[in-house]
Amino acid sequence: MGYPHPSHPRETPVLSKYFGDAAARTLTGWQARGGYETLREALATDPVEVQNVVKDSGLRGRGGAGFPTGVKWSFMKPDGKTHYLCINADESEPGTFKDRELMRWTPHQLVEGTAIAAHAIYAETAYIYIRGEYTEPIARVSEAVREAYAAGILGANAMGSGKRVDVHVHKGAGAYICGEETALMNSLEGGSSRRFRRWQACLQNPPPSTTSRRSARRRMCSGMEPSGTSRSPIPQTPRAQARNCSPSVATSPGRATTKSAWDSR
Ligand SMILES: Cc1cc2nc3c(=O)[nH]c(=O)nc-3n(C[C@H](O)[C@H](O)[C@H](O)COP(=O)(O)O)c2cc1C
User: Fold this and answer.
1) What is the pLDDT of residues 106-145, one digit of tens each?
2) Residue closest by Cα to atom 25 of ligand 1
3) CA-CA distance, 27 to 148, in Å (whole number)?
4) Own/partner pairs, 148-157, CB within 8 angstroms, 24+ separation
5) Ligand 1 neighbours (beta carbon < 6 A)
6) What's the gap in Å between 17 CA and the centre of ligand 1?
7) Of all atoms in ligand 1, which is nearest to the CA of residue 90?
8) Sequence ranges of the domains in the chain
């Protein structure tokens, strides 16, 4: 990715293009580099169109599974329900620092991407969950969000589009497991003493983008399997049943199952 070393001659930095360029961190610096023009365009475009552009680009998730991003977004329909977008910047994998550098050098790039993704999935509210130890990235992204609100880029009438886009920065709980999506959302939701959500991972499939976490959890905890499989129900400890959440992630049988297998339920 070049910085702090010179790029390889055969390398074309894209996301890391402005690493080392401190002026790109500010709103004015980001706009001077063409920032937020894509958001303006996206907000004026139908979400399905945005999904198709991302599908055609071949962009894949960087969280490990490499799932096609546009396909993931296309699972979200305008169904009248409130949608939320959650950005996973927990990044606790040893030796992994791509998110840290993206947030340190180009926080507005993340804010812009967040707003585009929110629009594409019919969400008005997004949470950026950042690893708690990432003090500098948290400060940079928080400042970028503040600047974006002050400039009317975020908020009730984002860039004058009439669309609402709210972005919240959330400081992570400081556990590696919180990078796993269900644990992350449990950690984010927290909760009252009546229903306290620990940062604990649940067996789940399909990804939370395609269904509610509760229904995914209910399926797995009730031992239901994707249709067409012959596996026996998943044994649950009484405690896991009470919590309605399995204590184990590694044994999740459904992680690689396609959406279509689950759709028929
Ligand atoms: C133990 C564990 C830790 C994870 N940590 C992260 C993480 O720090 N950052 C991340 O983006 N995904 C992490 N993931 C993957 C997420 O569960 C999820 O698949 C990913 O955020 C989806 O994002 P993507 O669409 O960019 O791939 C982790 C998964 C597991 C099982």
Assistant:
1) 999 999 999 999 999 999 999 999 999 999 999 999 999 9
2) 61
3) 7
4) 148/27, 148/108, 148/111, 148/115, 151/27, 153/27, 153/36, 153/39, 153/111, 153/115, 154/111, 154/115
5) 61-65, 67, 88, 90-93, 177, 179-181, 249
6) 24
7) 8
8) 22-198, 202-265
Q: Contact 53/46 with Cβ under 8 angstroms? A: no
- Taking the C-alpha atoms of residue 53 and residue 20, their distance in angstroms, rounded to an integer, is 29
Q: What is the pLDDT of residue 165?
A: 98
Rounded Cα distance between 107 and 101, Å, is 9
- The answer to whether residue 49 scores a pLDDT higher than 80 is yes
Cα 75 to Cα 86, 203, 228, distances in angstroms: 15, 20, 21
Per-residue exposure over 27-65, b if at least 16 CB sit within 10 Å of its own CB, e if not: bebbeebebbeebeebbeeebeebbbbbbeeeeeeebee
Contact 109, 153 (CB under 8 A): no
CATH code that applies to domain 22-198:
3.40.50.11540
Give CA–CA dist 185/246, Å, rounded. 15
Nearest CA to ligand 1 atom 10: 63
pLDDT score, position 196: 60
* Pair of tokens at residue 185: 């959302």
230: amino acid identity, one letter = S
Closest CA to 257 of 214, 199, 210: 210
Lookup result for tokens 């998110």:
99
Q: What is the pTM of this model?
A: 0.79
